[in-house]
Amino acid sequence: MKNITDSFLSLGYGGSAGSFGFNTDILATNPINISVVLGVLIFFGKGVLNDLLDNRKQRILSTIRNSEELRRGAIEQLERARTRLQKMKLEADEYRVNGYSEIEREKRNLINATFDSLKRLENYKNETLIFEQQRAINQVRQRVFQQALQGALGTLNSCLNNELHVRTISTNIGILGTVGEKTD
C-alpha cells in the first residue's frame, strides 16, 4: 500500500529525484493506469454506453409492450373460450335433459303401445275362445239334432207300416195343397 501512495505522490510532486520518468514497478502503476483508462472510457464512452443502454431499454420496453398485448389477447381468447365452453355446457345439459325426456316419452309410448297390443291380443283371444265355444256348441247341437233325427226316423220307420206311411203322406200332401191354395 505504501508503494501505491508513493506512486501518487511522486506524480504530484515531480518525483523524488526531481525528474519525470517511467515507473517500472507494475504493482504501483497498475491502479493508476486502470483509473486513467477508466476515466478516458467514461468520458468518451459515456455517449456510446448511454446509446447502447437506451437501445436496450427501448427493446425491453417494446418486448414488455408486445408481451402485454399478447397477454391481453390471450386473456380475451381465454374469456371467449370460457364463454364458448359455458355455452357448450348449457347446450350439452339441454341435449341431455331433452334426451332424457325423449327417452322417457319413447318409453311411455312403447309401454302404452305394448299395453294396447296386449289388450288387442286379449280381446282377440277372447273372441277366438267365444267363437270356438259357439262352434263347439253348434257342432254338439248339430250332432244331437242328427242323432235325434236319426233316432226319430228309426222310431218312425220301425213304428210305421206301409198303410200308416201312405196315410201320413196323403195327409201331408193335403195340408200342403191347402196351404198352396191360400197363398194363391
From TrEMBL:
CDD domains: ATP-synt_Fo_b (cd06503). It is a single-pass membrane protein. It is found in: Membrane; Plastid, Chloroplast thylakoid membrane. The chain crosses the membrane at residues 32-49. GO terms for molecular function: proton-transporting ATP synthase activity, rotational mechanism. Its main location: membrane. Residues 64-98 form a coiled coil. Keywords: ATP synthesis, CF(0), Chloroplast, Coiled coil, Hydrogen ion transport, Ion transport, Membrane, Plastid, Thylakoid, Transmembrane, Transmembrane helix, Transport. InterPro entries: ATP_synth_b/b'su_bac/chlpt (IPR002146). Pfam families: ATP-synt_B. It comes from the Eukaryota. GO terms for cellular component: chloroplast thylakoid membrane; proton-transporting ATP synthase complex. In plastids the F-type ATPase is also known as CF(1)CF(0). F-type ATPases have 2 components, F(1) - the catalytic core - and F(0) - the membrane proton channel. F(1) has five subunits: alpha(3), beta(3), gamma(1), delta(1), epsilon(1). F(0) has four main subunits: a(1), b(1), b'(1) and c(10-14). The alpha and beta chains form an alternating ring which encloses part of the gamma chain. F(1) is attached to F(0) by a central stalk formed by the gamma and epsilon chains, while a peripheral stalk is formed by the delta, b and b' chains. F(1)F(0) ATP synthase produces ATP from ADP in the presence of a proton or sodium gradient. F-type ATPases consist of two structural domains, F(1) containing the extramembraneous catalytic core and F(0) containing the membrane proton channel, linked together by a central stalk and a peripheral stalk. During catalysis, ATP synthesis in the catalytic domain of F(1) is coupled via a rotary mechanism of the central stalk subunits to proton translocation. Component of the F(0) channel, it forms part of the peripheral stalk, linking F(1) to F(0). Belongs to the ATPase B chain family. This is ATP synthase subunit b, chloroplastic. It comes from Burmannia disticha. The lineage of its organism: Eukaryota, Viridiplantae, Streptophyta, Embryophyta, Tracheophyta. The gene is atpF.
